[in-house]
Amino acid sequence: MSAKNSNASTIVTALVLCLVCSVLVSAVAVGLKSKQQDNARQDLNKNILIAAGKFNPQTDSTSVIAERFASFDVRYINLETGAYATDEEIAAAGLGDVNSYDVAKAARTPNLSTPLENDTAGIGGKPKFSKVYLAKGADGNVEELVLPIHGAGLWGQIYGLLTLDKDLNTIKGVNFYQHKETPGLGSRITDEPWRALWVDKQLYNEDGSMKMAVTKAGTAKEGQVDGISGATLTIRGVNNLLQFWMGENGYKPFLDNLKANKADSGQGA
Predict the structure, then answer these.
(1) Measured at the alpha carbon of residue 65, what is the angle toward residues 64 and 68, in degrees to the nearest 5?
(2) Regarding predicted confidence, which is higher, 139 or 203?
(3) Domain of 118, in residue numbers
């Protein structure tokens, strides 16, 4: 066999092997996609439970996640009206399963968001819709409410979950479950002792103005959370995202409506 034919045979064999390997890898990826989605959803549900104080990663088994999360009702809300999204609004926006909805992605999708004049939280835009996790008592009233929050940190987006008690003003827990902050400094926003500082803080003053803030280390006033030494930029990002999501562009209109039992109508409180 000539050298030319030998080289051609080698190239053909390599191409065939590459094609076969590509098909196998694609098949495995497709086959595992559903499992990966299920794992991602379970992980999110676990983090929601952590934020609500219903799961301890140190002592609880993942086998209890589904049962404990079943107490939550997941619903779309319309951030423009401050009410639960109607079926018509959900259909018109082309939204799918609420459990799969990604509010951070929506904030950067033009048809699902509106521009922000001053994007201090670094989220991209104001999403038209978000989702909330509600746990209700036997009387049908909200016992606790978990709100997804996110915004820019020092090195990337910070994703968290804030839980409010039944008065819809007292913080019951917080969980920052995904970030790219500096290990040993900004990454300490995930530490339980620091997250515990948030518990029982009040979001708003009696007049509805924002009371809660996360401040530079050593400067917190009454009702505020002291920041982390050496992580000033991370803490600034956390405070910015808190102020956005709990403000008029975020969840405050919905919380006002929910307190006044008007969240189903969209009427102002």
Answers:
(1) 85
(2) 203
(3) 71-259
CA atoms within 13 A on the CB side of 189: 31
What pLDDT is stored for residue 252 in this prediction? 98
Question: Which of 11-15, 31-35, 146-150 has the highest mean predicted lDDT (pLDDT)?
Answer: 146-150
Tokens of 111: 């048809």
Alpha-carbon distances of 87 from 98, 146, 238, 244, rounded to whole Å? 12, 22, 33, 27
Q: Model's pTM, two decimal places?
A: 0.85
The pLDDT-based confidence of 178 (bands split at 50, 70, 90) is: very high
Integer Rg of the chain from CA: 23
Q: How many CB atoms lie within 10 A of CB 112?
A: 19
User: Is 23 among the domain residues?
Assistant: no
Whether residue 201 is contained in a domain is answered as yes
Tell the residue number behind the tokens 């050593």, with chain if given: 218
Asked whether residue 189 is domain-assigned, the answer is yes
Residues 6+ apart with CB under 8 A from 225: 197, 198, 201, 212, 213, 214, 215
Report the percentage of the chain scoring pLDDT > 70. Answer: 89
SS3 47: helix
Give the helix ranges, DSSP H, for 174-251.
Answer: 192-196, 232-245
Average pLDDT over residues 150-172: 98
Amino acid identity at 204:
Y
Mean pLDDT value across residues 105-109: 97
Domains in the chain: how many in total? 1
What average pLDDT is seen over the chain? Answer: 91
Domain membership of residue 63 (yes or no) is no
Residue at token pair 């102020």: 243
Burial class (CB in 10 A: 0-12, 13-18, 19+), 88: exposed
